Amino acid sequence: MAVAVIIALLVLGSIIFHLVSPWWQTPLASNWGSIDTALHVTLWICAIAFVALNLFLAWAIYRYRHRPGIVAHYEPENARLEKRLTLWTGIGIAGMLAPGLIAWHEYVTVPANASLVEATGQQWQWGFRFPGRDGVLGAANVRHITPENPFGLSPRDPHGRDDILIESADVRLPVDRPVKMLLRSKDVLHDFYVPQFRAKMDLVPGIVTYFWVTPTKRGTYEILCAELCGTGHHMMRGTVTVVSGAEFDAWLAEQPTYTELLADARDRATRLAGADISAVAPEGR
Amino acid sequence: MATVTIADDLTPLHHPKTWIGKYVWSLDHKVIAIQYSLTAIAIGLVALVLSALMRLQLGFPGTFDFIQPEQYLQYVTMHGMIMVVYLLTALLLGGFGNYLIPLMVGARDMVFPFVNMLSYWVYLLAVLVLVASFFVPGGPTGGGWTLYPPQTITEGTPGHQYGIVLMLVSLALFIVGFTMGGLNYVTTVLQARCKGMTMMRMPCSIWGIFVASIMALLAFPALFVAAIMMLFDRLAGTSFFMPAIVSMGQQLGHEGGSPILFQHLFWFFGHPEVYIVALPAFGIVSDLISVHARKNIFGYRMMVWAIVIIGALSFFVWAHHMYVSGMNPYFGYFFATSTLVIAIPTAIKVYNWLLTLWRGDIHLRVPLLFAIGFLFTFIHGGLTGLFLGNVSVDVPLSDTFFVVGHFHMVMGVSPILVIFGAIYHWFPLITGRMWNVTLGKLHFWITLLGVYSIFLPMHYLGFLGVPRRYYALGETAFIPASAHGANESITIAALIVAAAQTIFFANMIWSLFRGPRAGHNPWGAASLEWQTPDVPPAHGNWGPRLPVVYRWAYDYSVPGAARDFIPQNEPPADGERHHPT
């Protein structure tokens, strides 16, 4: 008896919780409205099933609770009812699956005009690389990684020379231009996740993964790592700032290319080498 | 009847002569079942404490100095692994499987009693190796229960040196132990059923355990090879799962391995594992509902086929855990479709449970309360699974608290409610005593309401985008202060639920010694395990002669019958209505 009432109250409580809870999706800042639509369709169909099934449960418990003299009905099966329920379930499932697959089709179909951005992950920081003037990202391999070449660009690939390297966790993206995010990890699994974009994908060492997104709202958004990557997982943060196309182009032009960084590193190495000699010389080594 | 003498022959049963032979090196399936259950519950309590510690950190970050990121990740990892493998799998198959199969199919014992005993002792060894990992330098592994390489065996992850090795060895041992048990369960069901016990007369509990055992025999080898391959990567420097990487500034010697290969192997085990836990729970709950609603399980044949179909389909859905893993994205179409199709037989089971209650004579006893709790949490958890299976909807939700909320509802809370219901249901048979009803109800209400207030808000934190496996959320602009409040209240609810389990243990221990005598078949159940000559059943179960079965396990409230149940071994009266099975 009490259990019937409480099951019904739990259903009611869940609906109220859904309506008044302050926790819901962050406002969308990308083209992935289709993902949100698929989510909302799924939510509605599931919510109807949740309410209907549990209220039926509560009603059955109340209506057929044991009382003296009551005998249960004897009915081993009812093939017609079972078939009808199967059919309705199938329709509900199809109703969810269709928008889900349509959104997925969009998700895996990168537009031809998407520009390339590479996000690199390592424990526990982000880095970014843009292809430079030639529009091609140079070949890279973790075997080339040294303190002077943190992105592991192949020294032999001329395409890499003009690549723009962002050795910071803060990156900018142009608004309303599709971007194909190429993802590369130097060590373990990571996952590039901006809640406002909805999109995410793992970074997997050894291969390059990708997803695409068109930022649609200017603003600064946090990048989280969404795949456990060790003790610093929760601190592997970054930001992406979505700006106008012109601002983005101006910002990108200020960032150093691989060639410039190499030259810097060489200068520094020369200076350091000089400093080293003067430092150790007095000890007479 | 000369043909049944082999089964009826009592001489092969080695009746133990000493206390040690009876309770320690026991060949009796019922004692082995108790050994399995107590070990599983003991290690499960460790996992419960770990979850409380983990919640303390999430609810009150910075308050407890002894919980650093290393410890937090170790709690998360060990909690998950222990609960899924060492508690749920061991308790449902090793515990309930062992106890119920011979009694419910009318056998004297498992067909290989010695292998059965060995299965338990290897399981115990696996548990001890697992526990040992808490005491090695660096502590247990903190790589998440999914143990994804490369991080589990590289620097930056707790326990990457020794903890992970013990974890993998323990898993391999567990699988060896389980294989011995599983072969026994399957063979016993197929070969040792008593006269008249056709497959389609077996109770749903046995169907669930039987199909889950077959699945486990097929799925665990994938985890076994993954564990061995990772051991090679860790100890011998091979590169099965290890590509060339730079770990903390050091070039490692590995080259060419695939981290995603591990994920495929893990989830080829891991998804069927969900159903290895769920199917026995599905079966048991069917019987709890039927017995206490005094009504046959609705659509028995459909229920059996649903179990078989779910079992088969569950081998074709594993990559729905990997939509954003970087595997070929075109797999998404297939795995989303197969995953949502599996919802159909699952939904049929839910309908049939509800329709079993409908027009029943519902006795709201404690086992049925837990079964009703299961229906509520399973409907919730099953439906949220559709979000995560529906590929593009999974993209924003994966690796958030939505996932944590979902899988705890569907494969944490739901099966555990069934396990509690089953313990209350069969306790009178196992011990011959009844438990205290008031304490049982108290335990039920605190547990059900508590777990819902833990896991419902988690789904909403997930919608918001709060990531899982975070030691601390820190300052994150999109996470409002109220979300931290939610974390606090979740922690408080979790501590209450954890503490409330003492009611259960107190009730069971008190009842074991002081509970009123249960007598024979206190629930008026029709299935065979309640029809033994002795309560609790003696070694050999059936006295001098095996039972003969004449009907299915669900003859409740049959029109014209004298009582509202007819035991399976009662011969048919003249002119009696027959169910086709």
Automatic annotation (TrEMBL), chain A:
Q: What is the lineage of its organism?
A: Bacteria, Pseudomonadati, Pseudomonadota, Alphaproteobacteria, Sphingomonadales
Q: Which reaction does it catalyse?
A: 4 Fe(II)-[cytochrome c] + O2 + 8 H(+)(in) = 4 Fe(III)-[cytochrome c] + 2 H2O + 4 H(+)(out)
Compartments, record wording: Membrane
GO MF entry, a single one: cytochrome-c oxidase activity
Primary localisation category: membrane
Which SUPFAM superfamilies does this one have? Cupredoxins (SSF49503), Cytochrome c oxidase subunit II-like, transmembrane region (SSF81464)
UniProt GO cellular component terms: membrane
Q: Which family does it belong to?
A: Belongs to the cytochrome c oxidase subunit 2 family.
Q: How does it sit in the membrane?
A: Multi-pass membrane protein
PROSITE patterns in alphabetical order: COX2, COX2_CUA
InterPro entries assigned to the protein according to its UniProt record, in alphabetical order: CcO_II, CcO_II-like_C, Copper_CuA, Cupredoxin, Cyt_c_oxidase_su2_TM_sf
The protein's name = cytochrome-c oxidase
The reply to whether Translocase figures as a keyword in the UniProt entry is yes
Tell me a GO biological process for this protein: ATP synthesis coupled electron transport
**Whose protein is this, by species?**
Edaphosphingomonas laterariae
TrEMBL record, chain B:
> Its domain of life?
Bacteria
Against Pfam families, the record matches this protein to: COX1
Gene3D superfamilies listed in its UniProt record: Cytochrome c oxidase-like, subunit I domain
Q: List UniProt keywords, sorted A-Z.
A: Electron transport, Heme, Iron, Membrane, Metal-binding, Respiratory chain, Transmembrane, Transmembrane helix, Transport
Q: What is the lineage of its organism?
A: Bacteria, Pseudomonadati, Pseudomonadota, Alphaproteobacteria, Sphingomonadales
Q: Where are the transmembrane segments?
A: 36-58, 78-101, 121-142, 162-186, 206-232, 274-291, 303-324, 330-354, 366-389, 409-430, 442-461, 490-513
Q: Which GO terms describe its molecular function?
A: cytochrome-c oxidase activity; heme binding
Instruction: Report the subcellular localization.
Output: Membrane
Q: What is its membrane topology?
A: Multi-pass membrane protein
Acetylation among keywords? no
InterPro entries documented for this protein: Cyt_c_oxase-like_su1_dom (IPR023616), Cyt_c_oxase-like_su1_sf (IPR036927), Cyt_C_Oxase_1 (IPR000883), Cyt_c_Oxase_su1_BS (IPR023615)
Presence of the UniProt keyword Transport in the record: yes
Q: Which organism is it from?
A: Edaphosphingomonas laterariae
Please state what the protein is called. Cytochrome c oxidase subunit 1
Which GO cellular component terms, listed alphabetically, does the Swiss-Prot or TrEMBL entry include?
A: membrane
The family annotation for this protein states: Belongs to the heme-copper respiratory oxidase family.
Give the Cytochrome oxidase subunit I profile domain ranges: 19-550
List GO BP terms, alphabetically: aerobic respiration; electron transport coupled proton transport; respiratory electron transport chain
